[in-house]
Amino acid sequence: MKLTDPDLLREQAYIDGNWCDAISYDTVVICNPANGRPIGKVPVMGAAETEMAIAAAEAALPEWRALSAKARGLKLRRWFELILEHSDDLALLMTTEQGKPLAEAKGEVTYAASFIEWFAEEAKRVYGDVIPGHQDDKRLLVIKQPVGVTAAITPWNFPAAMITRKAGPALAAGCTMLVKPAPQTPFTALALAELADRAGIPPGVFNVITGDAVAIGNEMCSNPLVRKLSFTGSTAVGIKLMAQCAPSMKKLSLELGGNAPFIVFDDADLDAAVEGAMISKYRNAGQTCVCANRIYVQDGVYEAFAQKLAAAVAKLKVGEGIAPGITTGPLINSDALAKVQRHLDDALQKGAKLLAGGKPHALGGNFFEPTILTEVDASMLVAREETFGPLAPLFRFNQVDEVIHQANDTEFGLAAYFYGRDISLIWKVAEALEYGMVGVNTGLISTEVAPFGGIKSSGLGREGSRYGIEEYLEMKYICLSV
Ligand code: ADP
């Protein structure tokens, strides 16, 4: 990997403005999922180092909180600019440790930076409220204050954006933060810390710690100095963390698993629906929590849609993300590959038909062929579990109410999509879908200006938009007797 700025490859954790080794000096080697080659090593830290980082975040809090919103916003703005200036290096780091195609990695860097930019601006708009008093001598005020020290645990599928989506609002609100990135993708996180340092974010305000997820997570959840945890990852881990945070009553944001339905009605623009399905299903090799997991196609257009989708899938180019023209990188590891295979085998055994792909890619390793299954039904694993891979299962439906019921028949409620043109149908379906986000005639809904998040087992809270900063603020009511 040839970085223009080699100092962006950091092999130590970033605590209190210093680059640190583990107390034990233990390290772990991180490998490229596309070819298994080592990239570098990072410290294996645990509870003791986490406690130190929390203490640093606590010590940095009074000064950071006391800065004017504009002053904090200017530092964040500088961080945003530096991220963009180094976007080529950040994208290369990301592709090397995560596997996504370079063009997608560049897109993620821009997306990640946009959260810092947005919240740099929002810092100045943390408004309070004045409420007409309930008695002659009373004036009632509401002010918003930062929650304090915050912790973030992030996943590997978006190594930059899942961090900035949390750190942006936290720092803008006047909180300090400690981040534990996913073990697979520490280098993007550490490069972001290097750029935060260069941007003049003071020591202790933003910290990144690598190592033992369980030990670090335990300390983050149990340490009373941490007032909020923001987690993006699986529902199973989210539930554990929520329970661990209960004794110290922490504020929580949880962005968990999804099982997104993608519905194509008879009157849909089929070419647009195929384009949306391609983006929603195959982006990041199917490894996003908002990826279409179940594609429901109405009887009248089922065959036509399937054929058009197969033609689009035939154009995908699988390979190492750094090579030109690649659209589909490797899966993150062999477990991810095994899950796709398990979903595929289960569906085929229960009567689904293979329309495209259907096996590990000839490149070997963690590569899997972009796959389409038809005649999929609710008895199959793919109907209930998130595949998190390049497998598109096509379900057939006839009635609108039937598909709404099927779409909602899941514990998850993150993103849903549908394509149709009848305006009354659009309104009815958009309201009926039990999801935090609904894309209508589009397969791409993520933006820093809109509230991202789910309901049911997909989590709590929203990230991005003007609502995102509220997650890092406490409301204080002041009753003033005059
Ligand atoms: P995935 O299956 O996508 O890796 P996880 O929920 O396992 O999703 O991981 C998301 C993040 O949660 C990662 O940073 C991982 O290290 C972390 N994590 C996993 N298990 C725990 C745990 N018990 N305590 C704290 N963090 C955890």
Automatic annotation (TrEMBL):
Family: Belongs to the aldehyde dehydrogenase family.
GO CC annotations, alphabetized: cytosol
Keywords attached to this entry: Oxidoreductase
Gene Ontology molecular-function annotations: succinate-semialdehyde dehydrogenase (NAD+) activity
Biological processes per GO annotation: gamma-aminobutyric acid catabolic process
Protein name: NADP-dependent succinate-semialdehyde dehydrogenase
Keyword Oxidoreductase on entry: yes
Domain Aldehyde dehydrogenase: 19-478
Record: active site: E255
Pfam (any one): Aldedh
PROSITE patterns: ALDEHYDE_DEHYDR_CYS, ALDEHYDE_DEHYDR_GLU
Domain of life: Bacteria
